[in-house]
Amino acid sequence: MAAAKSDAGSGIGGDLDVRIARELLETARGTGVSLTGPGGLLRQITKTVLEAALNAELDEDLGYGKGDRTGKDTTNERNGTGSNTVTTDIGEVRIKVPRDRDGSFTPQIVPEHARRIEGFDEAIISLYGKGLTTGDIQKHLFEIYDADVSRDLISSITDKVLDEMKLWSSRPLARVYPVVMIDAIMVKIRQGSVANRPVYVAVGVDTAGERDVLGMWVGTGGEGAKEWVTYLSDLQNRGVEDICLIACDGLKGLPEALNSLWPRADIQLCVVHLVRASLRYASKRYWGQITKSLKSIYTAPNSEADQVLFEEFADEWEDRYPAMIRMWRTSWENFVPFLEFPPDIRKLVYTTNQIESLNARFRQATRRRGHFPTDQAALKVLYLVIRKPLKNRTNITGKTVSWKQALNTLSIYYGDRINAQ
């Protein structure tokens, strides 16, 4: 038990941390030196630690320590120091870098010509992915770390992820996805003039219940089936042979493109989007009545009852809002597939809401930027949002239904198409 306590913050290690902190504070007070700032004690300590680490590296490289001539069995030896200024988490630190006579020493702690130690670039990339602009980050770094970093440098650091994004967008995918959701988010991009452009996002759920963004594509806003085939063929080319169920908005040409690429897939139009589209045709004074009637339709126990309820709804509203009823009749074939499943499983397939949380993160990252100069600049920011795995992967259907339950139900309907291994 003593050892366990020692490892915890409240044991020996914790006491040591507190003692070191107090000693640093007392030293700062006694010498009149501040802890932070350009000449602060923390920066001096960082300089000392980095230089000691570099000298230890050179000792190991040469095979003997400084001043230890007895251990020397090489003609190579120390040859003074060079200077380097590196940006650390507490600001810029000027250090002396030891050199060897034949120039073979390659430091790892602070690589040759490095201007930032490891971790600084990732901090900038993380801030950029959270929605901060290059100007925001520049101000943040100066205020918090006293580091004067140019906006051009910040841009070049974040551009490092472009190669990573390229590999991500061409990575192999699973052979089968029980469920895929497709949605769009609007982003302002300059194309001659600044305009809203759709970024289409496909999220797949594999047989283990893991959610993953499969791909992202910047559209022109006027897509038809031909354009959709171009985007989605990317998934097919990366290994997706079969999709059982696809939940999507009623994007123009999308169902036709999906049928041409995966003819056995069931296409489920997002019910939430259909309801929202219905309200666009209706006066606000009737929204309550319409949504109540539509809820009874999409919560019907089966497709037969659903058809009866819809006809009653059409009889009530078709004379007043014929375009709304026509939209439902046109969408009917792709609206009813989810009714074949038990009520608890329907939550998995009748809406793209599982992508909505991701879209919220996308909006947070793009909101403060106004617009993007290029398609690539927009995709870079969205990619930074999804670098980490999506949350809530093991119970994507909600609190009451686990993925294992959902998978068993889907397997009944799709049989051997779903490889549960």
From TrEMBL:
GO terms for biological process: DNA transposition. Belongs to the transposase mutator family. InterPro entries: Transposase_mutator. Residues 61-86 are annotated as: Disordered. GO terms for molecular function: DNA binding; transposase activity. Residues 77-86 have a biased composition (Polar residues). This is Mutator family transposase. It comes from the Bacteria. Residues 66-76 have a biased composition (Basic and acidic residues). Keywords: DNA recombination, DNA-binding, Transposable element, Transposition. Required for the transposition of the insertion element.
